[in-house]
Specification:
heterodimer, A: alpha/beta, Rossmann fold, seven-stranded mixed β-sheet, 20 helices, B: alpha/beta, eight-stranded mixed β-sheet, three-stranded antiparallel β-sheet, 12 strands, about 20% strand, oxidoreductase (chain A), Pyrv/ketoisovalerate_OxRed_cat (chain A), Pyrv_flavodox_OxRed_cen (chain A), 2-oxoglutarate ferredoxin oxidoreductase subunit alpha (chain A), magnesium ion binding (chain A)
């Protein structure tokens, strides 16, 4: 039987099921297949903070959304074209996001009276006509998996657990994905348990074969590879890109990497990843708390290492005092804050960008710290290297504001040519710099205003540093009013001066005649970019710019802001960048905010943008 | 410890630290900073003993790092011409951990006090000891907050009247030695600011110990808690109260009394004539289980009746920096030194164009 193949330019699929159904794994595998096929893609995992909420309940629903296309795309997509619902809870939690005409593939085995009642369905939505707006494929995924594995030496429970691989096989057939990667993956993952390996591979194959033979699925789809710029690509999440960026930064600076960290969602994967790379000389220290994590990183930096700490909002709060000490001692330190919903424990597994003002101002005294924010998962690699450049060049702590969306989301990453990465070689101070062989630990470089980084073990440069105000030059304790004023201003001038070494803010304004600028920062780049495309396709004129340096700002920012009649600033907070822009540049930007723990939808931003454009005209 | 002629093996705790070609002098150990403690402060005596002792380490001055927190004692690093950091309240053990773990070639000393080390920094202290980071922690215990002018500390005796406890404290105090032994520190000792010889001997033993060494130093604060340790310094009483710990020697408190095993494994001080000389325990600092040393540390109850000083415990186990570095070496030996380009290009890749 030859089935019809339809060509699509893009598809959004959401896998949803119970926390124990393996939806993250399923989504990740589909993503890898899609990546190796050469589509552009973007992903959005969405999982509960609970490890295992009660089975079949709404709080236990875990999902993974993937957007893939034959062209360059910027977001995981607003609304799924296809929802795979492994149980009634997964349907209930996600059906509201579906546009009319979307496909629902539901695992009928789980649509029992009991499971329906658990999530408040009085009748079975697969049968009562309430899903009439959608194309519903009711498939008994569990029982078909169990039947397919009848001859295998696995328990019924293990057979049932392989239903996610059956679903993956079916979807892989539907979208003509290459299967070698997943088969190889299963082989490696279950190398120690051959019977489980065989069962999962068979379930995957059975799902594929089911698609090919059943009359329920008459059509399969083709999404051709995207014409991305030439190069070798891999799929990468933001957390992995941060980890790789830090390893690269250590190689480029010639410094050993030291990570002091305490487990916290959604930053822990950076600790996990770096702990695997000991052969690069990477030392990872799982501390007793957030404070010790950053303390140890600063101690290692005092000893000449590239000191890094990784955390999320609640941990950032605890690190503030040590970051202040790093400001005072003027030692290089990289602080990665993977932002999540706050305040307090907030939404551990959801995204937000509400730590900006804390990063800038959340310390006692005048405590300037450079702040950077990656704009996409892949950009996390470059931003980690940029953080290391600034930290080591200017002898300062640097805060990087990633977020939960970037951390767990993924996109294709063009693997850089290592030889083309910047040379950041660091030279520690080796000789006295003062009169009569004296060493002046706070004598500043006239260009960067950085003080020398003299590490223990260097003869003749013995010196003491600490949190008490330092005398200019000698670094001795000083309570002199004039000296304090000088040092406060010097530290600020040093951080302000970093702006001279960063590229000017680029504005994307194809026609050069836009009156409205949309300015974002950090993880909203994809959503804003997709919204801008929509508006332009509809004939709207809009300029887009995106900040990666939040402190100091690029030198041309004020000029860019003043160039446009209106500036829209969308943020996943209550207007923190907007506050800074108004205060700093006296430009009355239009703040658009939403704090739902999720990225902006492109459609929503496009509407807001259009409204601002219409008002301007 | 160094041989008579000064040749290696040297201090075992410094085996990864380079040897000084020419020894520096005690005078060179002093920085040019004016020492600013109150007249009569016990810190002066400790500083003088430490400055004289430092050259004995036999390592270059530049390989010595002193890290402190906040408090009167934490001014210590400023007065020594080595590398140093006067950090933030309670965090010195954490900062020192990062330094010591990444730089095995340094001799790292943490200077802290009863407030800094046991109150705000208690968590870091116990974890540094548990991990056996190669640092020497000197905790100056004056049983009071000095720098903030006289509030009770976590070692102040219950009922103490201070600025913040006008009716007497209701807190129970920590016994720092018991606490360190509870964290299974490999080296735990106690000494007194006024006994320079004993103090220097304990510093020597601490430096010799590889891994974390914890030393409690009874230190007098003449302004806010004067004579806190007077019974241990008074010539008429001290020999009856002080129990000088010497490895292999009988545990004697004065001429008539000795330490014997009690019914439930606790230690008690008894009249030797009554129990017999043979029941008096000989001190064994090398017992692998910390239980005996812990029992010793409880002898000071009630207050100062019998206070053991000297080395309670000296048991070697692998130091944190050595274990961490061994893993790096093992990984590099097994898979080869990491290759950045290969790492970045790992995983599933595809090529365009």
């Amino acid at each position: 039987m030859t089935k019809e193949v339809q060509r699509l330019d893009r598809v959004i699929i959401r896998f949803a099921g119970d926390s124990g159904d393996g939806m993250q794994l399923t989504g990740d595998r589909f993503t890898q297949e899609t990546a190796s096929f050469g589509n552009d893609l973007s992903t959005l995992p969405n999982f509960p903070a609970e490890i295992r909420a009660p089975a079949g309940t709404l709080p236990g629903v875990s999902s993974f959304q993937l957007h893939f296309a034959d062209h360059d795309i910027m977001t995981p997509g607003d609304a799924p074209d296809v929802l795979v619902a492994m149980n009634p809870a997964a349907l209930r939690a996600n059906v509201g996001d579906l546009p009319p005409g979307a496909t629902v593939i539901a695992n009928t085995d789980e649509f029992t009276r009991r499971n329906l009642a658990k999530v408040g369905y009085a009748s079975n939505p697969l049968e009562d006509g309430s899903l009439a707006a959608y194309k519903v494929s009711a498939v008994p995924l569990t029982s078909m998996t169990v039947r397919a594995l009848a001859g295998f030496d696995v328990s019924k429970k293990d057979a049932e657990r392989a239903k996610n691989m059956f679903a993956l096989g079916l979807l892989s057939w539907m979208y003509n994905r290459p299967t070698e990667g997943t088969l190889g993956f299963l082989k490696a993952k279950f190398a120690g348990r051959p019977e489980i390996m065989a069962a999962n591979r068979a379930a995957f194959q059975a799902g594929w074969n089911f698609g090919e033979t059943t009359e329920d699925f008459a059509v399969s789809y083709e999404v051709r590879p995207a014409a991305l710029p030439p190069g070798t690509y891999r799929n990468i999440t933001g957390n992995l890109a941060v980890a790789y960026g830090l390893i690269a930064a250590a190689e480029l600076t010639g410094l050993p990497l030291f990570l002091g960290s305490y487990p916290i969602t959604p930053a822990s994967d950076i600790l996990h990843e770096l702990s695997r790379h000991k052969r690069f000389g990477v030392r990872t220290f799982q501390a007793e708390d957030e404070i010790a994590g950053v303390g140890a990183a600063l101690g290692a930096a005092f000893g000449g290492a590239l000191g890094v700490t990784t955390t999320s909002g609640p941990g950032m709060v605890l690190k503030a005092e040590t970051i202040g000490l790093a400001v005072m001692t003027e030692l290089p330190l990289i602080v990665i804050d993977v932002q999540r919903g706050g305040p307090s424990t907030g939404l551990p597994t959801k995204t937000e960008q509400a730590d900006l003002l804390m990063a800038l101002y959340g310390r006692n005294g005048e405590s300037p710290v450079p702040v950077l924010a990656p704009r996409s998962p892949a950009d996390c690699f470059d931003i980690a290297i940029e953080a290391a450049r600034i930290a080591t060049t200017y002898r300062t702590p640097v805060i990087v504001l990633s977020d939960g969306y970037l951390a767990n989301g993924s996109e294709p990453w063009r693997i850089p040519d290592v030889s083309a990465l910047p040379d950041l070689a660091v030279r520690h101070a080796a000789e006295p710099n003062g009169p009569d062989g004296a060493f002046l630990p706070y004598l500043r470089d006239p260009e960067t205003l950085a003080r020398p980084w003299a590490v223990p073990g260097t003869a003749g440069l013995e010196h003491r540093i600490g949190g008490i105000e330092k005398s200019d030059g000698t670094g001795d304790i000083s309570y002199s009013p004039a000296n304090h004023d000088l040092m406060v201003r010097s530290r600020q001038a040093k951080v302000d001066g970093i702006a001279r070494g960063i590229p000017p803010l680029e504005v994307d304004d194809p026609g050069g005649d836009a009156e409205v600028l949309v300015l974002g920062w950090g993880g909203t780049y994809g959503s804003i970019g997709a919204a801008v495309r929509r508006v332009r396709r509809a004939g709207g004129r809009v300029a887009q710019a995106h900040l990666r340096h939040l402190a100091p700002f690029p030198e041309n920012l004020g000029e860019v802001l003043r160039r446009y009649d209106r500036v829209l600033v969308p943020e996943i907070n209550l207007g923190q960048l907007a506050l800074l822009l108004r205060g700093r540049f006296l430009v009355d930007v239009i703040s658009y905010t939403k704090v739902r723990g999720l990225p902006f939808k492109a459609e929503e931003l496009a509407a807001v943008l259009q409204e601002v454009i219409d008002r301007a005209e | 410890m160094p041989n008579e002629n000064g040749s290696r093996p040297g201090f075992r705790g410094l085996r990864l630290v380079p040897r000084a070609e020419t020894a520096f002098t005690a005078k060179q150990a002093k920085s040019d900073q004016e020492v600013r403690w109150c007249p009569g402060c016990g810190d002066y005596a400790i500083l003088a003993a430490f400055q004289s002792f430092l050259p004995e380490l036999g390592v270059p001055r530049e390989n010595i790092v002193i890290i402190s927190g906040i408090g009167c004692s934490s001014r210590f690093p400023y007065y020594l011409d080595t590398y140093g950091m006067h950090s933030i309240h309670g965090r010195a053990p954490a900062i020192a951990t990062g330094l010591a773990a990444s730089r095995p070639d340094l001799s790292v000393w943490v200077i802290t006090g009863d407030g800094d080390g046991l109150s705000i920094g208690g968590n870091h202290l116990m974890h540094a000891l548990r991990r056996n980071v190669n640092i020497n922690v000197l905790l100056f215990n004056n049983r009071i907050y000095g720098l903030t002018k006289g509030q009770y500390s976590p070692t102040s005796e219950r009922g103490k009247v201070t600025k913040s406890s006008p009716m007497g404290t209701v807190d129970a105090p920590f016994n720092p030695v018991s606490l360190a032994l509870g964290a299974e520190a490999g080296f735990v000792a106690r000494t007194i600011d006024s006994d320079r010889r004993h103090l220097t001997g304990v510093l020597r033993a601490a430096a010799d110990h590889p891994g974390a060494a914890f030393v409690e130093i009874y230190q007098n604060c003449p302004i806010f808690n004067d004579d806190a340790f007077a019974p241990l310094k008074d010539p008429g009483q001290r020999d009856l109260r002080l129990l000088r710990l010497e490895h292999g020697e009988p545990l004697r408190a004065g001429p008539d009394r000795g330490v014997v095993l009690g019914e439930y494994g606790e230690l008690v001080v008894a009249d030797v004539a009554e129990v017999g000389e043979e029941r008096v325990l000989r001190h064994d600092a090398h017992r692998p289980d910390p239980g005996y040393a812990f029992a010793l540390s409880r002898l000071d109850q009630p207050a100062f009746e019998h206070v053991p000083i000297g080395v309670f415990r000296d048991v070697e186990r692998p130091a944190y920096d050595e274990l961490m570095n061994a893993q790096l070496a093992e990984a590099a030996a097994a898979e080869g030194r990491g290759d950045l380009a290969a790492l970045l290009a790992g995983g599933d890749t595809w090529t365009v164009g």
